[in-house]
Amino acid sequence: MNKINLLSKDISELIAAGEVIERPASVIKELLENSIDSGANLITIEIKNGGISYIRITDNGCGMSKVDVPMAFLRHATSKISTASDLDKIITLGFRGEALASISAVAKIDLITKVSGSEYGTHYVIEGSEEKLIEECGCPDGTTIVIRDIFYNIPARLKFLKKAVTEGNSVSAIINKIALTHPEISFKFIRDNKQELLTPGDGKLYSAVYSVFGRDFAKTLIPVNYSNNNIKITGYTVKPLFSRANRAFQTFFVNNRFVKSVTCTVSLEEAYKNSVMTGKFPACVLNLEIPPDIVDVNVHPAKIEIRFADEKLIFDSVYFAIKNALLQEDKPEELRIETKKNFSANQLFDVKPFEAEKSVQLKMNVDSMTFETNQKSYSSTGNETFVNSQNIYVPESPAKPHEIIVEDNFKYINKDSFIKKEPIIKENIIVEDNNVSFNINIIGE
After folding, report:
1. pLDDT tens for the 445 residues of the chain, in order
2. CB 235 within 8 A of CB 224
3. In the 8-state DSSP scheme, what is residue 230?
4. Is residue 165 part of a domain?
5. If DSSP codes are grouped into helix, strand and coil, which group holds residue 277?
């Protein structure tokens, strides 16, 4: 039997970091929550190589003093709670005091921060939980933190990261979710020197949805505003006609915290039952304002999974919020289908309009293959031939009247004119000696 050993501080910190930091997106989430809790209303996120080699987050929040900076990187050091009773009424996004300590254990960090009113800021460098530098510096109010080389000291974790594009997409997804939870904050996301997202920060959820998901998605939404038993649900849900092929557009927040909730998902889809096609899923952006004492956010280190004290109450609240919105805002759309429609040639084909048609009398002498009209005469020199495409067909050699074959249309084309014949009936053709007479329309000269 192996002897029980007490793990060293370095090893225990690496293990603890693995619970919180799984990939670059995890780092972004933790740092954004800190920026939001600091009271910032302008936040810039920049990543390179999917966030594996470079992450920068800049905010205009309250900042930290020189004394607090080193303490912030200690495990279980936080300004959010101080007593056990505070866990029952958590209203901040972060509270565990593990984020900065976990990040510093697996990455290289440069931090620049300044408290409003202070003459100087603080520059702090820490790598692998080991402090490298702390000094005064000049900087604006707020905090800028730069993360480099995630998992540089844990090759086993580094090799399990996905390609830079995949990791970058995960970062983009988490930024989009957090941007929706706080429309009062302007988020700017820069990916490999290209701006991907900019929210206005005007406090309107619709503006944030428009910036994140685009115009086509935003115009299919209907507002949701419902209150029941101290639970308030606001946001937007999609019209049944514009349901989606997957659940990727189902977004839920609890007290402005992005969460994944099976209860909310099932309730949403139950409200849309018999309103969407089989295989389609509704989309929504909903925020649930719930008393902190009936929701437990301290279930998972990442704080994405939560637990409700009364699951049925939450289910009913979401269900009736969606039902009321659909009944009030989703008006039936009338679709009219005309049973018969006659189109003109100009509507069906992109052709130039013909000139005014002129009806003339034409005589064709079969032996000489000469066309004569009351306006102009057209003769064949022997090298020209008649067009045989549902037209009158005349052999190149002189033919007798009974050898003329009449189809539905007649066309004669030469270098100078274009003659079009409307549909003719064989019985109306007059054959006298070697001449055939009928009416045609000459269009153009």
Report:
1. 566 666 666 666 565 555 568 889 989 998 998 899 888 999 999 999 999 999 999 999 989 989 889 888 887 666 655 566 555 555 566 555 678 888 888 899 999 999 988 899 999 999 988 889 999 999 999 999 999 999 888 888 888 888 999 999 999 999 999 999 999 999 999 999 999 999 999 999 999 999 999 999 999 999 999 998 889 999 999 998 888 888 888 999 988 888 888 899 999 999 998 888 888 999 999 999 998 888 877 666 666 778 888 889 999 999 999 999 998 877 666 666 666 566 665 665 555 555 555 444 444 444 444 444 333 333 444 433 333 333 344 444 443 333 344 444 444 433 344 444 444 444 444 445 555 554 444 444 3
2. yes
3. T
4. yes
5. coil
> In this structure, is residue 377 part of a structural domain?
yes
Determine, yes or no, domain membership for 157. Answer: yes
Q: Are residues 420 and 365 in the same domain?
A: yes
Residues 52 and 192 in one domain: yes
Q: Are 301 and 96 in contact (CB under 8 A)?
A: yes
Which is it for strands 186-191 and 42-48: parallel, antiparallel or unpaired?
Answer: parallel
The token pair at 292 is: 């902190």
Quote the pTM value.
0.68
Does any domain span residue 62? yes
Last residue of a domain, one of 168, 202, 236: 202
CATH number of the domain within which 261 lies = 3.30.230.10
